[in-house]
Design brief:
Layout (H helix, E strand, L loop, with lengths): L1 H5 L7 E6 L3 H26 L11 H29 L1 E5 L2 E9 L2 E8 L3 E7 L3 H6 L1 E8 L6 E7 L1 H19 L8 E3 L1
Parallel strand pairs: 5-8
Antiparallel strand pairs: 1-2, 2-3, 3-4, 5-6, 6-7
Helix pairs in contact: 2-3
C-alpha cells in the first residue's frame, strides 16, 4: 500500500522516514479529555436541575444518560480520528527526492514531492522550552524557484533530520554530477 501511495522509481531507496513526534498527541488527548469532562459536567448539572430547566419527564434521567453516552462516544471517536490523522503525517527522504505526506483531515491528504536537486536550504527550528526538553521542532526545506517550501512541524530530532536531508542532497549532487544551487543548513 505504501509503495503504491509513494509511487517510487525502481531505483529509489528510502533513506529516512520521519514521523511526527508523539508529544503532539498530548494536545489532541488533552482537548478530547476537556470536551469529555465539559459534556459530563453539563449533563450532570442538567440531571440535578431537571425541574429548573423544564424537564418533567418520568424517564428524564434515562434520557440524560443516553445523551451523555452519545456525547462520550462521539468525543472518544473524534479524539481517536484526530490522533490517527496526526500519526499519518510524515517526511520521507529518498536517494532522489523528499516526499511530504500531509494529512489535513480524514479525507484530505496532500502528497508533495521535491527532487533533491531543487533544495536550496534546510532549516531546523526549536522554539520554547518543551521542544528543547523533548527534542522536537520544525523542519523547513526551502526550494529553488517558485515552489512553496516544505514545512514539517513536530519533527523528532530536527537538527539530525536536517543534517540527514543535507547529506542526501550532497550525495545526490555527487552522484549526478550537477552543481548545487546553494544548499545549506541553519539550526535555531
Amino acid at each position: 500500500m505504501r509503495q503504491r501511495l509513494l509511487d517510487l522509481d525502481p531505483n529509489e531507496i528510502v533513506l529516512h522516514d520521519v514521523k511526527r513526534h508523539p508529544i503532539g498527541l498530548l494536545g489532541i488527548y488533552f482537548a478530547g479529555a476537556f470536551i469529555f469532562l465539559f459534556d459530563l459536567i453539563v449533563l450532570f448539572l442538567m440531571a440535578r436541575n431537571q425541574e429548573a430547566i423544564g424537564l418533567n419527564l418520568e424517564n428524564s434521567s434515562a434520557i440524560i444518560v443516553v445523551i451523555a453516552s452519545i456525547f462520550a462516544i462521539l468525543t472518544v471517536l473524534a479524539t481517536t480520528i484526530a490522533a490517527m490523522i496526526y500519526k499519518v503525517n510524515e517526511l520521507i527522504v529518498t536517494n532522489e527526492s523528499i516526499i511530504l505526506i500531509y494529512q489535513a483531515g480524514l479525507f484530505n491528504r496532500k502528497i508533495s514531492q521535491l527532487g533533491l536537486e531543487k533544495i536550496e536550504d534546510v532549516t531546523s527550528q526549536q522554539t520554547g522550552i518543551l521542544p528543547h526538553m523533548f527534542n522536537y521542532g520544525t523542519i523547513t526545506i526551502e526550494t529553488a524557484g517558485e515552489m512553496s517550501n516544505f514545512v514539517f512541524p513536530y519533527a523528532p530530532s530536527p537538527n539530525i533530520t536536517a543534517k540527514q536531508i543535507i547529506e542526501a542532497n550532497e550525495q545526490f549532487i555527487r552522484n549526478s554530477g550537477t552543481s548545487a544551487t546553494g544548499s545549506g543548513h541553519d539550526s535555531s
